[in-house]
From TrEMBL:
Domain of life of the source: Bacteria
The protein's name in its UniProt record: Exo-alpha-sialidase
């Protein structure tokens, strides 16, 4: 679990915790090498074999833009900040660096530049290379390994309308658009065995004959804070944590997004621009994480995933 700690003085520092059972957590060692790295709040983590890659940021500088940092180390720690040129993640073309992912024999960071959807790739997490190229009207939110390359998901705008978009990407082949259903305006947010996003409702997309086909809408998309959705797989079931308006919701599907049922959260979860929530799964356990700004809470449920503790 990654995040940060705010000191009484208001200063922040990066934080990393590990657990073998999602019950007992221990802090892990971090070794920042830059001024902003020592103040970063970590936001994403990816594991491959016995290696760990983290991503964090801290706003600063004359314009107050996020100073992004990547970190690498063994699962046992410590994890060290990677020294990198400022314009690898920053500079005049910077927009954001979002999620870290692993697969296809490499680590990937998904994000965006002024030129559109982009990724950063590395075989070992020690040095990333920027790989832009999806187009100026594109936006990348997540990625999943596919064969020897990746599927990158997000949105593309045309005629002032933002719609779900998918690209295939590999080091040698570059970027290529993939056909995807678009019932309405929206965006894909999560990539896994299926894709999750918003397009005239929350939906899952499944691959059918070389095309990503949208399933039925589920959940409620309300006004206010823009909707988001993330996913996890546990015990062969697909879980979707949705954020819409001022509330979070949890849904489960046993048929890869063909049908959905609601799952009770540990308590009614309010939502604002300052609230962070995530879902993760394993063979027999579902874990929910939430931070409303006053402290983080971790909840877990073992099959049949009806009660959290």
């Amino acid at each position: 679990m990654v995040g940060g700690v705010r000191e009484v003085s208001g200063e922040t520092r990066p934080a990393l915790w590990s657990s073998a059972d999602a019950v007992s957590w221990r802090p892990m060692g971090l070794e920042p090498v830059s001024f902003y790295g020592g103040q970063s709040v970590l936001s994403s983590v990816a594991c491959s074999g016995r290696s760990l890659v983290l991503l964090g940021a801290k706003s600063g500088g004359v314009h107050g833009n996020p100073r992004v940092s990547s970190w690498v180390g063994p699962l046992s720690g410590p994890v060290r900040e990677v020294s990198a040129p400022f314009e690898l993640f920053g500079g005049p073309d910077a927009v954001n660096a979002g999620r870290t992912r692993t697969g296809a024999g490499q680590f990937l960071i998904v994000g965006n530049r002024a030129s559109g959807a982009s990724v950063w790739s590395s075989p070992d997490g020690a040095a990333f290379v920027l790989r832009p190229g999806a187009g100026v009207s594109s936006w990348a939110s997540d990625a999943v390994a596919s064969g020897s390359g990746w599927l990158v998901v997000g949105a593309a705008s045309s005629g002032g309308v933002r719609r779900p978009a998918v690209w295939s990407w590999a080091v040698a082949a570059g970027w290529s658009a993939v056909s995807v259903d678009s019932p309405g305006s929206g965006e894909l947010f999560w990539a896994g065995p299926v894709l999750l996003g918003v397009s005239d409702g929350f939906r899952a997309w499944r691959p059918v004959g070389g095309r990503w086909v949208a399933g039925p809408a589920f959940g409620v998309v309300g006004p206010g804070v823009p909707p988001v959705v993330s996913g996890a797989v546990a015990a062969g079931r697909l879980f979707a944590l949705t954020g819409s308006g001022d509330r979070f919701g949890l849904s489960v599907s046993a048929d890869s997004g063909g049908t959905w049922a609601g799952v009770d959260l540990p308590a009614p979860w309010s939502r604002s621009v300052d609230t962070v929530a995530a879902v993760a799964g394993s063979a027999d356990r579902l874990v929910l994480l939430r931070d409303g700004g006053s402290g983080a809470r971790v909840y877990m449920s073992d099959g049949p995933f009806g009660r959290f503790r």
